[in-house]
User: Fold TatD family hydrolase from Halorubrum glutamatedens.
Amino acid sequence: MNQRYPTARPTDADRLEELDRDRLSDPDRRSDLDLPTELLNLPWIDPHNHAHTLSWGDRERYALSGCRSMMMVSSGYHWTPYKPVEASDVRFLWDDAINRRTAIERNHFFEAKLGLGIHTGVRIEDPDDLLAVMDDYCALEEVVAVGETGVTPGQHVERWDVDEQQAVVGAQMEIAADHDLPVLLHTPNTSGESKRDYRDGLGVTPGYEKNAGLGAEPVLDGENPALEAVERDVEAARNAGLDEERVVASHADANNTAYLMTETDCYLSFTIGHSWLIGVDAADVANAIDEYGPERIMIDTDCANVLRTDPYAVKRAIFELYRYGIDVDDIRTVVYENPRDVFGLAE
Ligand SMILES: [Zn+2]
Assistant:
């Protein structure tokens, strides 16, 4: 072997040169791959997180890894202490996010817009009081979507009749349609199999700070309650006169992807900031892009302080999608252009 490098004995570098000279057609064995360095600086958008609940350090991680814009979602029972929840409790969450948003932008340089909604994971006693004021909130420039919301098969602590839930989801969709805002759906997941059960009393999901034992009996108990919930959401959108392309179904998974892609015009957002919980990662995103194209697909982190979540998830996925064979243009479509266009972010 001719040694080109002044190493004591031949290294891989010499052997790779030799392989390249032989012009091997197997790209795995070539050293001169044309790696897309633009991925290092590709701006990305996180269209679903709860970054206002994170630490300063976690928000800085978004900035350090190239997040250009995000939608901080302010809805959700995780942050309301009293159950059942009153309208004023949820309104406080909305107001808290509005109160802190500008300081977050000034500290971290990325754009931070808001999604406001009524989550159905816990029963709200007087949802009409929220719906009555929601119109004024949706008129705000910083509010770019309604949500997250969507029919939930089972509540925390106390059940919420499924038709009542659907009515509240539909009413929010009507307000969204009036304001030409998209709606972010929280679609229920069918989580991956765990290898082993945890000790009694320690919760089913360490990594999720929730008293899981306080779950109420489900209100949907058919064959596939998670999918039935999404079908009800789509029905609610149709009844509300909200265009399906203004609906983004977050937490897309194997249970709802085919339905949403083939029977609706909704967008799908794959939540990959807590893959350990819902079992969805960049491989699922790549498979969906292969099967359906990138036009209606996004990625979000859903990072929140009550969960073990990863603010770097989208940045990691950008490289992982490329490794899985997805083109740079399609990656840009999924992590930047689609959320930009649907939510009006980073304009
Ligand atoms: Zn969320």
Observations:
- The chain has a mean pLDDT of 93.
- The pocket of zinc ion is lined by residues 48, 50, 73, 148, 302 (CB under 6 Å).
- The CA atoms of residues 56 and 264 lie 39 Å apart.
- DSSP finds eleven helices and eight strands in the chain.
